[in-house]
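Hi support team,

I'm filing this because I wasn't sure whether my run with magnesium ion finished correctly. The job status page said complete, but I'd like someone to confirm that the output block is well-formed before I use it downstream. Pasting the exact inputs I used:
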Amino acid sequence: MSKRISLTQYLIEQQRGTAQLPPQLRLLIEVVARACKSIAISVNKGALGDVLGTAGSENVQGEVQKKLDIIANDVLIEANEWGGHLAGMASEEMDDMHAVPLHYPQGEYLLLFDPLDGSSNIDVNVSIGTIFSVLKHQGGEVSNDSFLQAGTEQVCAGYCVYGPQTTLVLTVGQGVAMFTLDREQGSFVLTQDQVQIPADTKEFAINMSNMRHWADPVKRYIDECLQGKEGARGKDFNMRWVASMVADVHRILTRGGVFMYPWDKREPTKPGKLRLLYEANPMSFLVEQAGGASTNGLQRILDLQPGQLHERVSVVLGSKNEVDRVTAYHREAQ
Ligand code: AHM
Ligand code: MG
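And here is everything the job wrote out:
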């Protein structure tokens, strides 16, 4: 049997190697991974752990919170606040950022997360996940504004998908690595390094029920895919939509594809459904590190300067040639 590399060993090698991963960042990643293991245990218990159903509250975005949204949020906060590696945290489930209590040492990093992405899939036993992004605190008193940094400033991003396997996917800016949770050993084991997304694909992911609300460039792209071999693209396309971004992006990192959650006419003043800081940015960092591309239809997502903590954004990401095509259609329509 080939030698197994644990997440800890991988991170220590990143610390010694060209990445020169700072020890505080290594600690942060290990703590997030530990929190994900704990969340995975709750997810796996399901109805037996009384973790399904709604919590009877709403988050700042007016979305009904599920019990597991809150459990996952609490697990991430409790795991991360005392280690001395963070200055603050921000989450989809909290209106404002959470400062590290003053009786704990203050660190130099900021952690953002969507504690449980794909909430509508929790109760139906379909893959869900945790998404996270790490920034450096630029100094001064930590506030919501401290988190308003472009995605290019991320020093680490990743997600953990709770599916048939629990898989942690990570980048520290040196490519993308995947780790599978060995439940008997209780540790994440490296199962794929230097993940690459093929530049071409025959698979798209979009919520087709919103078709009548889409902008013309999105309609044009999907119409051409649907025309298949007989149409402009000259090939048949397949469609997948899990409704958990984590699961859809995981498929794209594994075998290619294009994922879109575009702006649509349902709520024209909203730029999109997904949130820039803790959904689109970390996923865009991972996708670019794996050779893919990510735009809001016009601009590279990682270049966008956020104006608000819970800002939303239109998302097109995945196989480079398809993302370039969708982006070109938007630019032509301007
Ligand atoms: P959530 O963070 O509240 O779970 O919402 C984000 C999710 C994404 O994971 C997914 O891509 C999208 O919402 C699905 O939306 P829809 O229900 O419109 O298909
Ligand atoms: Mg989400």
